[in-house]
Specification:
The complex is a heterodimer of chains A (118) and B (111). Helix content of chain A is 0%, strand content 56%. Chain A has no helices and 11 strands. In chain A, strands 2, 4, 5, 6, 9, 10 and 11 form a 7-stranded mixed sheet that branches. In chain A, strands 1-3-8-7 form a 4-stranded antiparallel sheet, with no helix packed on it. In chain A, a hairpin with a 5-residue loop joins strand 5 and strand 6. Chain A is globular, with a radius of gyration of 13 Å. The N and C termini of chain A lie far apart (39 Å). Chain B is mainly beta and 111 residues long. The mean pLDDT of chain B is 95. Chain B is globular and about 40 Å long. The chains are: A mainly beta (118), B mainly beta (111). At the A-B interface, strand 4, strand 5, strand 9 and strand 10 of A face strand 3, strand 7 and strand 8 of B.
């Protein structure tokens, strides 16, 4: 079954770091572009970052300079390294596959929760 | 403030037709970038409902339809069902931000 499974969420203090993982099954992460999307409590969905098949990366202004998206093709896994975390980064983080169905994100993970609090 | 503008809520009775609007700018929808629509229940994975403005992925009922005009797009649901109650988001690419932008989401209540 084609699926994405996130992990790595948890409680972290402001200023701390966390790395999220997103393991893919039945497709290879470097064949498509992969994104992270988040939803803060009581808020809407927010696009966070993308990595294209060729390796180019882009970020939302809210996380630029603090977050880094990457992938390990040998492990078929997408990552989001989050540094200098702030309370406003508290959210459920989803990974998603793009480019298989036009430019839409057709496969999503179940999400992993990140709480930034002292 | 989201780059794409959606009304916060919409409601309808079972069997009725409801529409969701999504208004963008000249750097996203107005620039010709495709609009996608997602159905989301918080805490679950968002579900792709519409891509390329008006195309339904396999498995999405014909009750769902999409349209686009100028800097705006819309999603319509006919024959409203209780199971349709969820949050609905539009999404498009923005050339000035070099990334994707979501609408703020519209909460659908089935009366």
């Amino acid at each position: 079954e084609v699926q994405l499974v996130e992990s790595g969420g948890g409680l972290v203090q402001p200023g701390g770091s966390l790395r999220l993982s997103c393991a893919a099954s039945e497709f290879t992460v470097d064949t498509y572009y992969m994104s992270w999307v988040r939803q803060a409590p009581g808020k809407g969905l927010e696009w966070v970052s993308v990595i294209y098949g060729g390796g180019s990366t882009y970020y939302a202004d809210s996380v630029k300079g603090r977050f880094a998206i990457s992938r390990d093709n040998s492990k078929n896994t997408l990552y989001l390294q989050m540094n200098s975390l702030r309370a406003e980064d508290t959210a459920v983080y989803y990974c998603a596959r793009g480019g298989a169905v036009s430019d839409a994100f057709d496969i999503w993970g179940q999400g992993t929760r990140v709480i930034v609090s002292s | 403030q989201s780059v794409l503008t959606q009304p916060p809520s919409v409601s309808g009775a079972p069997g009725q037709r409801v529409t969701f609007s999504c208004t963008g700018t000249s750097s996203n929808i107005g620039a010709g970038y495709d609009v996608q629509w997602y159905q989301h229940l918080p805490g679950t994975a968002p579900k792709l409902l519409m891509y390329g403005d008006r195309n339904r992925p396999s498995g999405v009922p014909e009750r769902f339809s999409g349209a686009r005009s100028g800097t705006s797009a819309s999603l319509a649901i006919t024959g409203l069902q209780a199971e349709d109650e969820a949050d609905y988001y539009c999404l498009s690419y923005d050339s000035s931000l070099r990334g994707w932008v979501f609408g703020g989401g519209t909460k659908l209540t089935v009366l």
